[in-house]
Amino acid sequence: MSSQLVITSPDKESTVVVDQGELISYSKDGEELIHQKGDRGWRNADTEMFPIIGPTEANDFIVNTPRGGAIQDQHGLLRELSYRVSNQTVDSLDFEKKYVKNTTVKNSKYPEKSPKESLSWPYSFEFRKKFRLSDDALTILFEIKGEPGMPFMLGYHPAFKLSGQHTEIFESGSKQISLQDILDVGSIAFPALNTDELSLIKKEGYHIKITTKGFNNFMLWTEVPNMVCIEPITAYPYTGEKALGENLFRKCSDMDVFEVLIKPYR
């Protein structure tokens, strides 16, 4: 039985396909905008980074919290949990994950890519991901219901198709970023900070404007010219410090809401 769910815009010109919470397709007028799993570059199409962003290996995979050290692999344990569908309509989909504090979670990177077999976090939380498709754009909402005061970082990690010809540019305010700029930075990702909007400009097909609420930063990553990850983030983690500093974390206020709007345009 297929786990793929499809939603359609009111004008029937846009279609979104989601597989177990992962955005695997967003097409408009027949043009696919999302990097396809199996193509060069990355094995996924999107994911979330929570409750931390960035690598933890340099600190022996330990993240410091007010409740002590927590074992976390790169980008956190949320991706190791399974989404549950909580609501579906013709043009919307809602998913959620729940975590109970100190529950051990199997690390899918073990043993090939990590020495840590299991991960845990000393706080309980609920994480909701909601898709809303209109004629003009796809809105993705993230709702975090955590214990008040829980420290967290949040990043959204979608991948977009590129031509493979190195012709795309990225605009953030008055600043332009080339694909080569992103390739040159490598694994630490290119920072575009203190902004809520970033555009992917193409020679052919739809351009894409990404507008966010609550994040205020982006980082861009790719190692190939046929795709790029444009990632809204609450903080840029690659500061050169061994441990993720306290200043990179926010604190839960019972319910925290973040928004990403993906708008194709000519």
UniProtKB/TrEMBL annotation:
Xref: Gene3D superfamilies: 2.70.98.10
Subunit structure comment from the entry: Monomer.
Needed co-factor(s): Ca(2+)
Record key words, sorted: Calcium
Record InterPro entries: Aldose_1/G6P_1-epimerase (IPR008183), Gal_mutarotase_sf_dom (IPR011013), GH-type_carb-bd (IPR014718)
Superkingdom of origin organism: Bacteria
Entry protein name: Aldose 1-epimerase
Organism: Lutimonas vermicola
